[in-house]
Amino acid sequence: MSEMKVVKTSCSTCGSCCEVDAYVEDGKLVSVEGARNTPMQSGGMCAKGAAAKQYVYNKDRILYPMKRVGKKGEGKFERISWEEAYEMIAENLLRLRKESGPESVVFYAGYPKWYRPALLRLANAFGSPNYCTESSTCFQAAALAWRSLYGNGICGPDMKNAKTLLVWSSNLYHSNTPMSGTYQGLKKRGVKIIVVDPRHSVTAHDADIHLQLIPGTDGALALSMAQVILEEGLYDKEFVENYVYGFEEYREYVQNFVPEEAEKITGVPADQIRLAARTYAGNGPASVMFSASPIVHHINGVQNYRAVFSLIAITGNYDVEGGNRTQPGPSSLANEFGRVRRFDGIEAIGQKEFPVWFDLSCDEAQCTKLADYILEEKPYPIKAVFAMGLNHRMWPQPEHLQRALEKLDFYVNVELFMSESSNAADLVLPACTSYEREEVHVGKGGRFYLSNRAIEPVGEAKNDIEIIIDLLKKMGLKDEALENGYDAYMQHILEPSGLTLEELKNHPQGMQGKNLFPPAVKTYEAAPLHTPSGKVGLKSLVLERYRESHGYEGLPVYHDYRAETKIDRNQYPLILSTGNRKPQFFHARVYRMAWLSNIEKATLVEIHPEDGEKYHIKDGATVKVVSPSGEMVGIAAYTIAGKPGVVNIYHGNPKGDANELIGKDYLDPISGFPGYRSYFCRIERVEEES
């Protein structure tokens, strides 16, 4: 008789964002319950019950190494052994390194993120500067904007001690569900909450003030709030005088954004702008809760976010209790994330176009234009891509990248599922889900966990880091952290904490790190900031460096995409915004799971009822969305959450992918991020017969 057992593990469906209980019978996953917030990044939903089983035992799961036998893109593969696969990779990559140089090989990390430092180590050992990740369109532009001001990693909100929380375009209930309880707790203890969001989201509904702006006008709104704060003397004069660079030029520039003028740009009433500015500056300490991508998915995204982050400095809410600071409470160090430096001895892709990306280094190359680099062989030929979890639907005009991948000499994708992106590969390797591997997690407050393997890997799947270690050895490459095997690498991660892997295995509830140090505030008093001026750079000297060559501006200057984009607005009158979170979806990962994808039979094109009436489109009608770059068919869905004149579409659905509508060159010139959330389109009725 079989026995049911409960194993604590991490959720694979949402990218290991939460701790769950996996119920196992006869060695197979039966169901999953959850979720509890754990140390991993949040940003998705928890897999439960049927969804977890549909994920792990999906018909598209890759069970064995598979070699292409048909034409590229045809999707015809045959099973081979792991040894054959490793031989094939080593032979091709080493040959191309000899013929075209190590830079001709791109190492790419998609989702999830747990193996990234190990893949970077493999790229470094190989000698390639071209280690890239999906953060070429997610998060890193926000981090770049922050570093341009403060010179360090983003400091999160100290919500425990804040009296005001400014949530800038983050819908917690859909994108950061474990934090929704904390958010509700803030309301109960009387914290003033301001939400900036183009949509009336669930999070905005609970706010004291909702600034519902037109997509892409965040910079103008932040500069207008700054104008009120400075005009009314609500800024922190002592902090500004001692620790801020470029203040007088900044003060002069924000005078262009008095609330009455900003109202014309943003659509937010002037009195609401003043109320929000006075609340944030006058009811301190105050924190800003940032989001990974919404603000930087505009062609003025970096400067927009610089304008937002500047509010923290002028109000003196940087690195203080209740403001934006490193996580309060004891912390413990761990190796790997943020500690492995990218090899930069050779020019990387994206370095000429986006130099600040490299000057304010995130230890990644910028690969938004990867398809062009492959097809045009500039700055040099790209011959191969070794990818783990590459999804071409992350890029604007994804079919453009798919065609480029088919042109490569050699392309490998390590994946869970036989995806469309894998169809272009020469070799596809099976990866484990998080239910099928052990993994060290580094938590808040210096707590460490080892998630358990709930079930044995399906087929011949291996965990990503084991694949990386095997390849390192097969190619005869050296890396001291990887070359001694998987357990030794996990121990390497733990080394600064004073804990051992064996201790964690014996403590499934997790352990506090032994080498702790107390948190500090106002660290800028003891040492200069890591910026060229040593102060908060309201005027960035790094950006100023490229004023002549790239047209960058040191101040957080606002450029309006509606005025500066040469697109016929009579032909494309609506603003197109893609990517707003939905609670059942996590990017394109779960469209193959019927339990979730059947909630929506087709891609929903969300429009305001006023636009439906204006363009004679009924709720539920089949519509075609046309942009200057492409078109797609979906189902019209009336919503009053957004503003009239704005079309919202979630991304990643192969039945109608919104990213096909976004121009591949419609990019922020500083970060290279696509303008996913502020492009242009029109909508047309589709006859029922078609």
How would you sum up this structure, described in words?
- The chain is of the alpha/beta class and 690 residues long.
- It is 29% helix and 18% strand.
- It is built from 24 helices and 27 strands.
- It has a seven-stranded mixed β-sheet, with helices on one face. A six-stranded mixed barrel has the order 22-26-23-25-24-27.
- A hairpin with a 4-residue loop joins β24 (622-626) and β25.
- α3 runs parallel beside α17, α8 (218-231) packs antiparallel against α11 and α11 (259-266) packs across α12 (270-282).
- The longest helix is centred in the first third of the chain and has 19 residues, at 82-100.
- The radius of gyration is 25 Å and the shape is globular.
Q: What is the topology?
A:
Layout: E1 4-10, E2 18-25, E3 28-37, H1 50-56, E4 66-68, E5 77-79, H2 82-100, E6 105-109, H3 116-126, E7 131-133, H4 140-150, E8 164-168, H5 172-175, H6 180-188, E9 192-196, H7 202-205, E10 209-211, H8 218-231, H9 237-243, E11 244-245, H10 247-254, H11 259-266, H12 270-282, E12 286-289, H13 301-314, E13 331-332, H14 355-359, H15 370-376, E14 384-388, H16 398-407, E15 410-415, E16 427-430, E17 439-442, E18 447-451, H17 464-474, H18 486-494, H19 501-505, E19 511-512, E20 516-517, E21 536-537, H20 541-544, H21 547-550, H22 561-564, E22 574-578, H23 594-597, E23 604-607, H24 609-614, E24 622-626, E25 631-638, E26 646-649, E27 679-685
Parallel strand pairs: 6-7, 6-14, 8-9, 8-12, 9-10, 11-21, 14-15, 15-16, 22-26, 23-25
Antiparallel strand pairs: 1-2, 2-3, 4-5, 4-16, 13-20, 17-18, 18-19, 22-27, 23-26, 24-25, 24-27
Helix pairs in contact: 3-17, 4-13, 8-11, 8-12, 8-13, 11-12, 15-16
